[in-house]
Amino acid sequence: xxxxxxxxxxxxxxxxxxxxxxxxxxxxxxxxxxxxxxxxxxxxxxxxxxxxxxxxxxxxxxxxxxxxxxxxxxxxxxxxxxxxxxxxxxxxxxxxxxxxxxxxxxxx
Length: 108
Description:
Blueprint: H1 19-41, H2 45-61, H3 65-79, H4 83-103
Helix pairs in contact: 1-2, 1-4, 2-3, 3-4
């Protein structure tokens, strides 16, 4: 299987203290990505930056460094008012978010 399609697991998945937080994060992840896509389509880069920052920090805290890294990149290009770069980063973030969701107990 191509590694770009393999599920992504939390580095904290064996931490019982993080289990509920990870579950809540995964359950709301698709909706968060949809909201980011709506902001990008609307050209609201300031809103995109703000919402992406929240997602990046939460992903980092819950053990999803790849998702966090892409979210921080998206945040940065939104801050720099680069709509084309924001769109490209959002496509990548969407793909990684799908892999993260697949990695959580096989959910999709």
